Amino acid sequence: MGEDVKHPMRGLGLSSLCLQEKKLVGAVSVAVEAILAQFSSSRTVVQKGTRALSGDSAINPSLGRLVLQCLCPALHSLLTDGLKPYQSDLIAGRRPNSAWSLVQASTRAPKTHALFSLQVRVGELPQLRQSKHRFNAFLLGLLTKLLDFWLSYLQSCSVLETYYHPTSFMRLSQAACQPLFEELLLVLQPLSLLTFNLDLLFQHHHLEPESHRPEIPSPPFPDPGSQLST
After folding, report:
1. pTM of the model as a whole
2. pLDDT mean across residues, the chain
3. CB within 8 A of 35, min separation 6: which ones?
4. Quick check: 18 and 174 in contact, CB under 8 A?
Protein backbone atom coordinates (compact mmCIF):
# COMPACT_ATOMS: atom_id res chain seq x y z
CA MET A 1 0.00 0.00 0.00
CA GLY A 2 2.98 2.33 0.39
CA GLU A 3 3.60 2.58 -3.34
CA ASP A 4 1.82 4.70 -5.94
CA VAL A 5 -0.54 2.81 -8.16
CA LYS A 6 -2.25 4.00 -11.30
CA HIS A 7 -5.77 3.12 -10.18
CA PRO A 8 -5.77 3.17 -6.37
CA MET A 9 -9.55 3.62 -6.13
CA ARG A 10 -11.17 1.65 -8.93
CA GLY A 11 -14.83 2.47 -9.45
CA LEU A 12 -14.57 5.95 -7.95
CA GLY A 13 -14.75 8.77 -10.50
CA LEU A 14 -13.12 12.15 -10.08
CA SER A 15 -16.41 13.67 -8.98
CA SER A 16 -16.62 11.15 -6.13
CA LEU A 17 -13.02 11.84 -5.14
CA CYS A 18 -13.66 15.59 -5.12
CA LEU A 19 -16.75 14.98 -2.99
CA GLN A 20 -14.54 13.32 -0.37
CA GLU A 21 -12.08 16.19 -0.55
CA LYS A 22 -14.93 18.69 -0.16
CA LYS A 23 -15.66 17.19 3.25
CA LEU A 24 -12.09 17.96 4.30
CA VAL A 25 -12.48 21.60 3.22
CA GLY A 26 -15.84 21.69 4.98
CA ALA A 27 -14.22 20.66 8.27
CA VAL A 28 -11.72 23.52 7.93
CA SER A 29 -14.59 25.91 7.22
CA VAL A 30 -16.42 24.84 10.40
CA ALA A 31 -13.23 25.41 12.42
CA VAL A 32 -12.69 28.86 10.92
CA GLU A 33 -16.29 29.89 11.65
CA ALA A 34 -15.88 28.79 15.26
CA ILE A 35 -12.67 30.80 15.60
CA LEU A 36 -14.26 33.90 14.08
CA ALA A 37 -17.24 33.60 16.43
CA GLN A 38 -15.00 33.16 19.48
CA PHE A 39 -12.72 35.97 18.39
CA SER A 40 -15.69 38.27 17.98
CA SER A 41 -17.31 37.39 21.31
CA SER A 42 -14.04 37.80 23.22
CA ARG A 43 -13.78 41.42 22.09
CA THR A 44 -16.46 42.30 24.60
CA VAL A 45 -14.18 41.06 27.39
CA VAL A 46 -11.12 43.14 26.55
CA GLN A 47 -10.97 46.90 26.87
CA LYS A 48 -12.07 49.08 24.02
CA GLY A 49 -9.17 50.01 21.76
CA THR A 50 -7.23 46.81 22.52
CA ARG A 51 -8.89 44.56 19.94
CA ALA A 52 -5.59 42.76 19.23
CA LEU A 53 -5.71 41.26 22.72
CA SER A 54 -8.56 38.99 21.57
CA GLY A 55 -6.01 37.02 19.55
CA ASP A 56 -3.42 36.78 22.32
CA SER A 57 -3.40 33.26 23.77
CA ALA A 58 -2.06 34.54 27.10
CA ILE A 59 -5.09 36.82 27.53
CA ASN A 60 -7.63 34.73 25.63
CA PRO A 61 -6.64 31.05 26.17
CA SER A 62 -10.05 29.91 24.91
CA LEU A 63 -8.98 30.98 21.44
CA GLY A 64 -5.75 28.98 21.70
CA ARG A 65 -7.71 25.88 22.69
CA LEU A 66 -10.13 26.36 19.82
CA VAL A 67 -7.31 26.67 17.29
CA LEU A 68 -5.60 23.54 18.61
CA GLN A 69 -8.73 21.43 19.02
CA CYS A 70 -10.58 22.44 15.84
CA LEU A 71 -8.43 24.13 13.18
CA CYS A 72 -5.24 22.13 13.68
CA PRO A 73 -6.95 18.69 13.42
CA ALA A 74 -8.96 19.82 10.37
CA LEU A 75 -5.84 21.01 8.55
CA HIS A 76 -3.89 17.95 9.68
CA SER A 77 -6.57 15.66 8.19
CA LEU A 78 -6.58 17.64 4.94
CA LEU A 79 -2.80 17.69 4.58
CA THR A 80 -2.31 14.03 5.49
CA ASP A 81 -5.04 12.88 3.11
CA GLY A 82 -3.31 10.55 0.67
CA LEU A 83 0.10 11.13 2.27
CA LYS A 84 2.47 8.29 1.48
CA PRO A 85 3.40 6.37 4.64
CA TYR A 86 7.14 6.63 4.09
CA GLN A 87 9.96 8.07 1.98
CA SER A 88 12.71 5.89 0.58
CA ASP A 89 16.25 7.09 1.07
CA LEU A 90 19.39 5.42 -0.27
CA ILE A 91 21.26 6.12 2.96
CA ALA A 92 18.60 6.17 5.69
CA GLY A 93 16.27 3.64 4.07
CA ARG A 94 12.57 4.06 4.73
CA ARG A 95 11.64 7.13 6.73
CA PRO A 96 8.05 7.57 7.94
CA ASN A 97 6.15 10.55 6.56
CA SER A 98 4.15 12.97 8.66
CA ALA A 99 2.65 16.41 8.36
CA TRP A 100 5.76 17.76 10.09
CA SER A 101 8.14 16.12 7.61
CA LEU A 102 6.04 17.76 4.87
CA VAL A 103 6.55 21.12 6.59
CA GLN A 104 10.30 20.56 6.68
CA ALA A 105 10.42 19.55 3.01
CA SER A 106 8.38 22.54 1.86
CA THR A 107 10.19 25.31 3.74
CA ARG A 108 13.71 24.99 2.42
CA ALA A 109 13.70 27.30 -0.59
CA PRO A 110 15.29 30.76 -0.12
CA LYS A 111 12.03 32.53 -1.00
CA THR A 112 10.30 30.95 2.00
CA HIS A 113 12.58 32.66 4.53
CA ALA A 114 9.76 33.50 6.96
CA LEU A 115 8.44 29.93 6.76
CA PHE A 116 11.90 28.45 7.20
CA SER A 117 12.60 30.65 10.24
CA LEU A 118 9.36 29.50 11.84
CA GLN A 119 10.06 25.84 11.05
CA VAL A 120 13.53 26.07 12.59
CA ARG A 121 12.20 27.82 15.69
CA VAL A 122 9.54 25.14 16.21
CA GLY A 123 12.04 22.34 15.58
CA GLU A 124 14.37 23.73 18.25
CA LEU A 125 11.74 23.71 21.02
CA PRO A 126 12.77 20.77 23.26
CA GLN A 127 9.29 20.49 24.78
CA LEU A 128 7.84 19.39 21.43
CA ARG A 129 8.89 15.77 21.00
CA GLN A 130 6.08 14.51 18.77
CA SER A 131 5.89 15.45 15.10
CA LYS A 132 2.16 16.23 15.40
CA HIS A 133 2.83 18.69 18.22
CA ARG A 134 5.47 20.39 16.08
CA PHE A 135 3.03 20.58 13.19
CA ASN A 136 0.43 22.17 15.49
CA ALA A 137 2.97 24.71 16.76
CA PHE A 138 3.92 25.52 13.17
CA LEU A 139 0.26 26.25 12.39
CA LEU A 140 0.05 28.53 15.45
CA GLY A 141 2.97 30.49 14.06
CA LEU A 142 1.44 30.59 10.57
CA LEU A 143 -1.58 32.43 11.93
CA THR A 144 0.58 35.57 11.91
CA LYS A 145 -0.68 36.00 8.31
CA LEU A 146 1.39 33.21 6.75
CA LEU A 147 -1.09 30.33 6.57
CA ASP A 148 -2.52 30.96 3.10
CA PHE A 149 0.97 31.80 1.82
CA TRP A 150 2.34 28.42 2.95
CA LEU A 151 -0.60 26.47 1.54
CA SER A 152 -0.32 28.26 -1.82
CA TYR A 153 3.40 27.63 -1.92
CA LEU A 154 2.92 23.99 -0.91
CA GLN A 155 0.41 23.43 -3.71
CA SER A 156 2.97 24.56 -6.29
CA CYS A 157 5.88 22.81 -4.57
CA SER A 158 7.76 19.95 -6.24
CA VAL A 159 7.51 17.82 -3.08
CA LEU A 160 3.86 16.96 -3.73
CA GLU A 161 4.60 14.14 -6.15
CA THR A 162 7.16 12.69 -3.76
CA TYR A 163 4.97 12.86 -0.66
CA TYR A 164 1.44 12.22 -1.93
CA HIS A 165 -0.53 9.55 -3.76
CA PRO A 166 -2.33 10.76 -6.93
CA THR A 167 -5.72 10.65 -5.19
CA SER A 168 -4.67 12.90 -2.30
CA PHE A 169 -6.31 16.27 -1.76
CA MET A 170 -3.11 18.15 -2.56
CA ARG A 171 -2.41 16.26 -5.80
CA LEU A 172 -6.03 16.57 -6.95
CA SER A 173 -5.95 20.27 -6.07
CA GLN A 174 -3.56 20.74 -8.99
CA ALA A 175 -6.08 19.37 -11.46
CA ALA A 176 -9.67 18.14 -11.09
CA CYS A 177 -10.20 19.59 -7.61
CA GLN A 178 -8.42 22.91 -8.10
CA PRO A 179 -11.64 24.87 -7.39
CA LEU A 180 -11.73 23.18 -3.99
CA PHE A 181 -8.25 24.46 -3.19
CA GLU A 182 -9.33 27.96 -4.17
CA GLU A 183 -12.34 27.50 -1.88
CA LEU A 184 -9.98 26.47 0.93
CA LEU A 185 -7.98 29.69 0.54
CA LEU A 186 -11.20 31.73 0.58
CA VAL A 187 -12.33 29.91 3.73
CA LEU A 188 -9.05 30.76 5.47
CA GLN A 189 -8.86 34.35 4.21
CA PRO A 190 -10.80 35.92 7.13
CA LEU A 191 -8.13 34.65 9.53
CA SER A 192 -5.54 36.83 7.80
CA LEU A 193 -7.56 39.91 8.78
CA LEU A 194 -7.25 39.11 12.47
CA THR A 195 -4.31 39.72 14.80
CA PHE A 196 -3.04 36.53 16.42
CA ASN A 197 -0.35 36.30 19.06
CA LEU A 198 -0.24 32.61 19.94
CA ASP A 199 2.27 30.91 22.21
CA LEU A 200 4.01 28.21 20.16
CA LEU A 201 4.05 26.07 23.30
CA PHE A 202 0.37 26.61 24.07
CA GLN A 203 -0.39 22.90 23.70
CA HIS A 204 2.47 21.99 26.02
CA HIS A 205 1.46 24.57 28.63
CA HIS A 206 -2.32 24.14 28.59
CA LEU A 207 -3.47 20.90 26.99
CA GLU A 208 -0.99 18.25 28.07
CA PRO A 209 -0.59 16.41 31.40
CA GLU A 210 1.51 18.16 34.00
CA SER A 211 5.19 17.62 33.41
CA HIS A 212 7.58 16.71 36.16
CA ARG A 213 9.79 19.57 35.10
CA PRO A 214 8.82 23.21 35.59
CA GLU A 215 7.31 24.80 32.51
CA ILE A 216 9.59 26.92 30.39
CA PRO A 217 7.68 29.96 29.12
CA SER A 218 7.96 30.61 25.42
CA PRO A 219 7.47 34.08 23.92
CA PRO A 220 4.93 34.23 21.08
CA PHE A 221 6.34 34.08 17.57
CA PRO A 222 6.67 37.65 16.26
CA ASP A 223 4.58 38.68 13.26
CA PRO A 224 6.82 37.94 10.24
CA GLY A 225 4.35 39.33 7.72
CA SER A 226 6.87 41.95 6.65
CA GLN A 227 9.31 39.16 5.72
CA LEU A 228 6.84 37.43 3.45
CA SER A 229 8.34 36.99 0.01
CA THR A 230 6.32 36.61 -3.14
Report:
1. 0.81
2. 83
3. 63, 66, 67, 70, 71, 191
4. no
